[in-house]
Amino acid sequence: MRRYVRLFPLLLLLLLSCDRMTSEKVFRKGLVVSSDRIASEVGLDILKQGGNAIDAVCATALSLAVTFPRAGNLGGGGFALIHTSDSQPVSFIDFRETAPGNINPKYYLDDSGKVVRARAIVGPGSAGTPGTVAGLYEMHRKYGQLQWNQVVHPARMLADTGFIVGASLAASLADYSDDLSQFRSTAEIFVKDGRTVQRGERLRQEDLALSLVLIEEKGRDGFYLGETAVKIADFCQAQDGFISLSDLESYQPVWREPVRFNYAGLDIFTAPLPSSGGVVMGQILKILDRYELSKYTALRSEYIHLFTESARLAFADREAYLGDPDFGHDFSKSLLDDAYLTSRTQSIRTDQASASEDVQPGIPDQSRESDNTTHLVVADGAGNVVSLTYTINLNYGSKAVVAGAGFLLNNEMDDFAIAVGQPNAFGLIGGEANKIEPKKRMLSSMTPTIILKANHPYLALGSPGGSKIITAVAQTIINYATFGESLTNAISLPRFHHQWQPDNLFVERAGFPAATLEVLRALGHNVVERDRYSEVMGVSFSEEGSYFSGVADARGSGYVAGY
Ligand code: DON
Questions:
Q1: Domain architecture of the chain: domains with CATH
Q2: 308 assigned to active site
Q3: Is the link from the previous residue into 274 a cis peptide, with omega within 30 of 0?
Q4: % pLDDT > 70, the chain
Q5: Cβ(415) to ligand 1 under 6 A?
Q6: CA 425 to centroid of ligand 1, rounded, Å
């Protein structure tokens, strides 16, 4: 009998797992999924101290700035979606970087008008005014439960006393050894005696700890005013950067209406402008919802073809219409309009790929208008969920640590359309709507997403990967919701990507059956194999949302911590 009593929790768990949560561990009280084990455990600890998902997401994000410097940050920006048990129904905060007030767009161009890539992505000149600290502080002010200093404290301690560098961080630092040696302030932290910090060594970051003490004690003012602000402005002034004290003082995060649309009977909430993520993913999924996708699988050429054709159309519109909504017309509603998408869908043929040069942006009906990145998901036992993506753009951002302040500045200026027709680091060609203007937010592809079903959380997810974020998130949703895969499978299945220009169908190397690729080539797709495809973090929920499980993409070093 005793044996059966011991077996009971196991049986119960098995029973609970029946609705597809087959391969994942199930939690009821709290769960943190992030790109780093230490940071996920900090978040879990905050939940155990009585903090809610918002407290935990802030603590985790701040800890990532210490333990995951290639993307975790104080010097970048991002977006978060928040579903709380008592608010309506999902809110969105934009803490994207802004172009400095005295920006000179010509700085990025040579005499012939060509983009000087190094200027767009290296050094303080490539940085926008950071938004992360203001964004986290504002989220916490509105929804947090613990004191702000309790939420910041673990990150400050990690910076101060240090942590043991693991295999993933050591390998990444070694990969970027030359980049990290370019600025003395950066090399002093990550490159000692000519070699990057090794696995098993303790990494202490005293300057970063000092910056975090000021944030812990003074909140957002500890970053945007006083000592840290002066260090940022002085550093920029000394090295071709544009960020000034007044840019920092006046930086404001913005609460915005999320993009909301229906796919397969699900209520999807995702990032609005200045991220293109929500609109582009919305177009793709709404077009695909017109087809009976469930008769295919994730590896079938018919599905990959239809997805690719939809993505081609959506990315063409991205270039033409999307940019900071505070600086131009917001086309989101017309681009997601059903009649408009019906007209766009007419060009899709099932027996032949279209050529991107024949596909132009559509003409949405404006009369209908009313108006290296990392993703974290936290859920708590009270029904709160946060899905947050933030970034300093490329790995280690501008590669420049602010001297004396210990954190890397972003290189987000490259996300603007610096020169019409010239692609950025992600091969994206931007248009007039995304040209550089003072104080403007550069267009993003980050796509933090929360999906509700019958008003309960169903899935929360997001990813790094530049333009590939959008297709990675969309494919994970389709794998889970339409193909009925477990969350683990939905995230690990091979991915593919098309963004109109260049006219390539990128497929994850060694991911797809040769026969599938052959059919796609025969349809006329220019199939190109590529390594590593984003790093999706996701949490799925039971029907009433009362228990949940998380998955960190096996492509990265992420970690699920729950209880
Ligand atoms: O906001 C954006 O779309 C880009 N700055 C994101 C960069 C990114 O995902 C890099 N990670 N691989």
A1: 2-26+257-372+445-562 (3.60.20.40), 35-255+391-414 (no CATH)
A2: no
A3: yes
A4: 95
A5: yes
A6: 9
